[in-house]
Amino acid sequence: MKIRTVYRCSSCGHSAPKWMGRCPGCGTWESMIEEVDATSTAKGTAAKRRAQAVGSVLSTPLSDVQADQAQRIPTGMVELDRVLGGGLMPGSIVLVGGDPGMGKSTLMLQLAAYAGSLAAERPCLYVTGEESLHQIKQRAERLGISANGIVAASETSVERIAALIEHTSPSLVVVDSVQTITTDLLESSAGSVAQVRECTSVLTRIAKRSGIPIIIIGHVTKDGMIAGPKVLEHMVDAVLQFEGEGTYSYRVLRALKNRYGSTNELGVFDMTSTGLREVHNPSEVLLSNRNANEPGTAVVAVIEGTRPLLIEVQALVSPTGFSMPQRVSTGYDAKRLQMILAVLEKRGGVQVRQSDVFVNVAGGIAVQDPAIDLGVAVAITSSIMDKPIPNGVAFVGELGLTGEVRRVAYLEQRVSEAVRLGLDQIYAPKSGDAKLSNVVPVERLSPVLAALFG
Ligand code: TYD
Ligand code: MG
């Protein structure tokens, strides 16, 4: 039976039998996306099926449903469990996104080996459209993991993958990657929005019906987002994002969405020659290479997810050779850096107009917590003054446009993590709570700079 497809406008929903550059319904350009025409699939029997379905569906009083029926499946990695909200939920569908080379395949192969080892008679199915089975085997050997519980398939047709799942009845399925698989129902090429969406919906149905968790890997760049979380977000139960800076070995796994746990949880890994290692004490690791006597560095206490992290911020300020000075930042928002520089110039009396400014968050961790601001401003000033910040000092605080240091959440956790790591003087915004020891309360940026650099 030939399935009909239609083109539907992604902004107004207008449908047309042919692709059009501009939607006749709302006039939006490039918004028509191919999809399976639902009315063409077994039109005549639809009513009959509906009648059958009603006959077979039973509702259950919610009071009879056991909440613990859904036993979470541990992943063998505390860091991954945390991001998932305590393990994998049966029947859940999880999208793991991230730039190519981040280590998505590596992490999932490690997970597959563990999941496969849990249930002897139910292997873990690893489907790849990216690599050959030979390459997978080589990687497993390099990672030193047992391939016993893993069945692998090099397959790109979602229909055959569905058959495979039915046939092997695995305990977990990994599909690597969503950009390589296609459904026979659509003519558009692999990786197109229509294919990615249709394939995901097929896999979602399988996961829900069978109770088998399915993990889909997707190459998703943070800014690119082509056929990425934007179109899949609402279809999946969780979206995990793998982040890191190319030259660093640290990787951060974040939950951008999680139906079964809190979002913005964070897992930290280290990419080694034998795979990803969990980092349970990121602050210690991130501060271990710190050279406290260097000007231009400051320790900040940020919260990522629910976890306090102590990280070193580095800044280098040097006279520019260009008419437009350079501002380069890694791990810190570039727009915020511009703002901090303007505040320093205007409210802190620090001259940066004629200077190139480089800011780097050590470890390549992309910090989203604005409480890093004060530390960034201090590190920049320290580089300009060529004067190091005293040992044992950390910074917390968001900067406002008038140079005020704003309050931040979870001050107590930040301070106690800093104290735990031997930092005993924490410059932090005045808090309404009872006085915290080791805190130097600050309200504005300039007195902080005056106290540190005279
Ligand atoms: P990979 O898992 O293939 O990334 P992704 O699936 O996200 O594209 O990992 C890619 C990088 O990780 C690759 O450049 C090599 C490196 N790597 C290690 O450093 N150690 C290892 O044990 C493995 C398997 C990979
Ligand atoms: Mg890969």
What is the total number of structural domains?
Answer: 3
- Low-confidence segments: none
Write down the CATH class of the largest domain: Alpha Beta
Q: Gap between N and C termini, in Å?
A: 81 Å
Helix content: 25-40%
How many runs of DSSP E, i.e. beta strands? 21
CATH topology of the largest domain: Rossmann fold
Which homologous superfamily in CATH is the superfamily of the largest domain? P-loop containing nucleotide triphosphate hydrolases
Q: How many DSSP H or I helices?
A: 12
Question: Can you give a write-up of this model?
Answer:
The protein has 454 residues and is of the alpha/beta class. It has three domains: 5-45, no CATH class; 72-280, 3-Layer(aba) Sandwich (Rossmann fold); 284-453, Ribosomal Protein S5, domain 2 (2-Layer Sandwich). It has twelve helices and 21 strands. The protein has helices at residues 46-56, 78-84, 104-118, 133-143, 158-168, 193-210, 229-232, 282-287, 334-347, 373-385, 411-420, 445-453, and strands spanning 5-9, 15-16, 32-36, 93-98, 124-128, 150-154, 172-176, 214-219, 238-243, 250-258, 266-272, 275-278, 297-304, 307-319, 327-330, 355-361, 393-395, 398-399, 405-406, 425-429, 439-442. It has a nine-stranded mixed β-sheet, with helices on both faces. Strand 1 (5-9) and strand 2 (15-16) form a beta hairpin. Helix 10 (373-385) packs parallel to helix 12 (445-453). The protein is globular, with a radius of gyration of 26 Å. The N and C termini lie far apart (81 Å). The model has no long low-confidence stretch (mean pLDDT 88). The structure holds thymidine-5'-diphosphate and magnesium ion. Thymidine-5'-diphosphate is lined by residues 98, 100-106, 139, 142-143, 271, 273-275.
